[in-house]
Amino acid sequence: MKLPAMTALEHGAFVFAGLLIYFIATRTGEQRRHPSAAIAWVVAIAAFPYLAIPLFLTFGRRKFVRPTHTVPAASGSPVARTPQWANALLTGLGLPQPVPNASVTFQPQGADSLAALIALIAEARQTLEVGTFMLGADEVGAQVTDALVAAATRGVRARVLVDSVGNLKTPQSLLRHLREGGVQVRSFMPLLHNPMRGRTNLRNHRKLAVADGARLWSGGRNLAVEYFLDRPGHPAWVDLSFVAIGPVATQARAQFEIDWATAGGRVEPSPPTRHDVAHVEGPALAQWIPSGPDRAEDTLHALLMTAAYHARDRILAVTPYFVPDEALLDAWCMASRRGVRISLVVPRQSNHRLADWARERALRRLVQCGGQVWLAPEMVHAKALVVDDQLALCGSLNLDGRSLFLNYEVMTGFYGPAEVAWLAQWQAQLVAQAQPYHGRRPPWWRDLLEGLVRSVGFQL
């Protein structure tokens, strides 16, 4: 078969058209990108237009909504108990206000977390929403699946949202068991779908379970055995989740409704912000903080940047992967140089070797600027952060470019002194079991390889 030939003029016109498509799609859609990502797309379209243009049309879009003007929040006692800088920022970004909850219970132990999740499902009477990046074909997946089917059997409207890429290895028989048991199941953005309804590389990484809109289970754990239970020769990963009873569960459920609609083919922005604060008695002040393509701004990245400039005493962080963008790394380094204690816990070796290579330059620079980096002996999958004594975060966000700029993520913000103190103490326990990281200059070949891996860190 003879392939059609193109003249140099036709080839140049095709390249020009591809660059024009990139420019129009980026500018009219207000698709703000990291400079390295923008340069990479332009160079790829110019050098390999017949490959890069289809890839851009399939994967290139990063945001689905544009910034809108947000009315300032009304004053109220819960808002007055939050740091002013965080309240002003998150209100300006259109986030729901912090709400007082009856209780928040953290579960650092996997067995306790699994028991709490099963109990929450068992206690549901009317509605049950479960979202996860991964549903394992193992004993944990079986326990959760059986509990969901039992809930649907007793008349609960049960829905499960799984990410299609995260569940590539999940057998269809497991999902079929859920559907046959009366549970509604949707997969988030399958690999083959209408590109107008979302981009394949934008994954839903949020983890939550909400019972009756009143009880919330969330954190960093996927629904698979390695996140909860020890196996012979394979201890459970260090992770963290929590159960909150109160209005923050209502905020999480509203977000699930949007994610559910997106998985059904309707790409929608996050729910509208409510500026009135319901009067609920409770000591645990918490706030649902989503980030991703359904938010006009990079919400969590903006919060971390602002926290770095307002911190006065400490920033304590736990993350499995540390491949931040240059702006966030600069902010942490400047905070360290002005006397803020930066303490970061990462696993000595994570489950992603490329991420371990990509993190080295950032870790060395942070240590050189006075920050403390600790290498945990086990795989750490938890995501948590504490800023002074004012704010603590726990949820699904990794400190890497994919989580910060591409994925659908969520962190729950805690403003109560008890929750902030608990998370700070938990991080200190991890530090006590870890070894300090010494940022030694690598040989030239490793430095070159780290740079090459780092160049694709935005997609790790």
Short characterization:
Helices cover 40% and strands 19% of the residues. It has 460 residues and is an alpha/beta fold.
Structural notes for this entry:
By secondary structure, the protein is α/β, with parallel strands linked by helices. It has three domains: about 10-60, no CATH class; about 95-280, Endonuclease Chain A (Endonuclease, Chain A, 2-Layer Sandwich), CATH 3.30.870; about 300-460, Endonuclease, Chain A. About 40% of the residues lie in helices and about 20% in strands. It is built from 15 helices and 18 strands. About 50% of the residues are buried.
Q: What share of residues is helical?
A: 40-55%
Radius of gyration equals 22 Å
Assembly type of the shown chains?
Answer: single chain
How confident overall, as mean pLDDT?
Answer: 86
Tertiary shape: globular
Number of domains: 3
Spans where pLDDT lies below 50 across 5 or more residues: 69-76, 272-279
Write the layout of secondary structure elements.
Layout: H1 8-28, H2 35-47, H3 49-59, H4 77-80, H5 84-92, E1 99-101, E2 103-107, H6 110-123, E3 127-132, H7 139-153, E4 157-163, H8 172-180, E5 184-188, E6 208-211, E7 215-219, E8 241-245, H9 248-263, E9 284-291, H10 299-310, E10 314-318, E11 322-323, H11 326-337, E12 341-347, H12 353-368, E13 372-376, E14 384-387, E15 391-395, E16 399-400, H13 401-406, E17 409-414, H14 417-432, E18 435-436, H15 444-455
Parallel strand pairs: 3-4, 4-5, 10-12, 11-16, 12-13
Antiparallel strand pairs: 1-9, 2-8, 3-6, 6-7, 7-8, 9-17, 10-14, 13-18, 14-15, 15-17
Helix pairs in contact: 1-2, 2-3, 5-10, 6-7, 10-11, 12-15
